[in-house]
Each structure stands twice: as C-alpha cells, then as structure tokens.
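User: Some background: our group keeps a shared notebook of sequences we're curious about, and every so often someone picks one and asks for a predicted structure to add to the entry. Today it's my turn. The entry only has the sequence so far, pasted here. Could you supply the structure so I can complete it?
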Amino acid sequence: MNSLNEPITLNNGAVIPNRIVMAPMTSKGASWDGIIEQDDFEFFGRRSETAGLLITGATAVSKLGEKFSYQMSIYDDRFIPGLTKLAKLVKRDGSKALVQIYHSGANAKVSYEKQGMVVGPSAIDFPHIPYKVTELTEEGVWAIIDDFGQATKRVIEAGFDGVEIHGAYSHIIQQFFSSYSNKRDDYWGGTLQKRMNFAFEVIKRVQEVAKECAKEKFIVGYRLTQEEIHKDSVGYDIQDTLQFIDRLADMNLDYIHVTSADYGKQIKEVIHGRTAFIFVPHVFKVQDAIDGLQYGDMISMSREALIEPDFAKKIREGREEEVATEITSTEMAKSLYFPRKMAEWLLDPNGKNPLPKGMEYFKDLVSDQ
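Assistant: Of course. Here's the predicted structure to add to the notebook entry:
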C-alpha cells in the first residue's frame, strides 16, 4: 500500500483517512462582505477527494482582520449558512474539513478600506504599510482572543471538523511573536517567552470553546512560518521557533503545520511525537509527497491541489500514474473550477503567488467572462 494511504489518528482521537492535506489557500470566491458564494462552493466541492484533510483559506474572525479581498469571514452569525453548505460539500466523500481562522492585524489592508483603521501589537510605521497602525490596548488584545473563540463556535455550528489557528504569514499572531512588529513591554511582549503569550492564549480559548461546544472529536491545529527575516533585522529565527514549537507540542494540539520545507528534520525532532507534524515538501508529483513523510506525519500541498483535484482519490485507487502535474489545456483549466477572481489574481504579472504549471490556459477563460 502506498504510504500516503495510511490513516492517522490525531491526539483527540479523530482519524484522518490518509496522509495528504490540502493546504489553506485564499480562493477569492466569496462576496466583498465575506459571505461564501457559488464560486467557492464549486472550487472546494470539486476538491472533496483531493486529500484526507482539507483546510479553507484564511477566514477572518474580526471586521478588522481582513487582508484579502473576496475572502471568507466568520465574525458574525450571518456567515454560518454559507459555511454550513461548504462543510457538507467538502466532507461528502469522507475527508475531514477545517476552517483556517485568522486576523491579519497590521496587514489587514481590506479592513482599512472598509473600516478606516487597522490594529496591531504596536504602533509602528511599517515601510510596506501606507496607513497608520493603532496599537491594541489590553482590552483590545483580549477582545481579539475572544473573537477567535466566537469564530470557533461558528465553525462548530456549521459542521466542520475543526479549526486551524493561523499563526503564519505575518498575520497578527506572528506579529505578536515577532520582535520586528511587537515592541510591547507587558504580558504580551518584551521577551521571547512573552511574545509567545498571545498565541498561547488564542489556543487556550479555542480549545476551551471546542471542549464546551463540540460534540465530536474537534480538531485544533496551529500553523506557523519558520523564520521572519527582514533586510535589516530579524523578527525571529529558527532557534526562537524551535523553542516555540517545543512549548506548542505540550499544549495538546492535534497538529503543527509549517509553511515551507525548511528545517523539517529539526522540527520533527523537537516535536518528538507529541503531536502530528504537517510538513510542506513542495509537491509536484506523487513521489514528492511520499518523500515528505520522512519528516512529516502528513504532507501539505497547495499548487498540486489546484492542478489535481483527485490527488488522494487516484492514489487510493492505485492510479498514481494518472495524477496530473500541470494544466495542459483550456478545457482542463475550466474543469478545475478556479473562482474567476482567484484566476485573475494568479495571472497578475505583478503578483508574488507561486503559479501552478500551465496557468496561462486560464487567460482565455478570464477574458471570456
């Protein structure tokens, strides 16, 4: 049997049917207000057999937490009906489905467009941000922690299997962990250990809500970026992160998920089997995924999940040789159900997103709409 097909049981007893994870990706299939629309139903529904564990793109827990236009949000009960329909679509073939919950803090540029302000750990003039950042008060910090808890309640009500707490890609949890963006000298900052506190309090609040409200084995995972290196400063390095991971691994999380293939061996050694490790080996073909299991208990993929919606299904059926590794025609591109705004975003010549191979076949589809 292909090793990718082996089930895995998480700390809470939930069983993932295989070792493949569809990484969270912003799909831009929601309305401007964050309500899930048909484009996202089709995109995620088409990928119900991509992986044993599927994670939505970043889903905002607060009005002040939105970085991406046309992204999902979850800061109000009015988002629950769309999430409920999405959960049913993604779970219909037996996979587990999670919502990635996040707040973008100082980087919430869409919230700035909508609300006229953004918040962060410290009031710093960042060179990449063309607006003022409002420093969070103590009350404001705890309010965001509660936002993560309220979002978790809505995830449970919508019927998802769990949440991934988004502590990566320079969103607010990473901003608290980083000495570059966190200049506080209180419970939330001043030392490496104190810069971890915001993440810990978010995790504890989410876990409390899961224990109180979830009837099933509710999954709580955490995602992080291994290092934050700037041109003239270091927000944190891998040694800081390994200390952080060592503490995370003792918090009864169901998994820790990284954002790149860096430092896989060191992270695996630090976790030491205390929780599942989701590794990112940059999958372009089946063997890449298999090789990734030397470090991770599960492997996470994004571009390959865009190209091959039947990745896990074909492996389960012994059809590895049929797994697509690039988009080869306009007809194939159409069958992948990319939301139009997502396709336009990926085709943007000024964009920084790593592109699926063959993305040019979407040009005609976008221009025809």
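Suggested note for the entry: The first helix runs from residue 38 to 45. The first strand starts at residue 8 and ends at 9.
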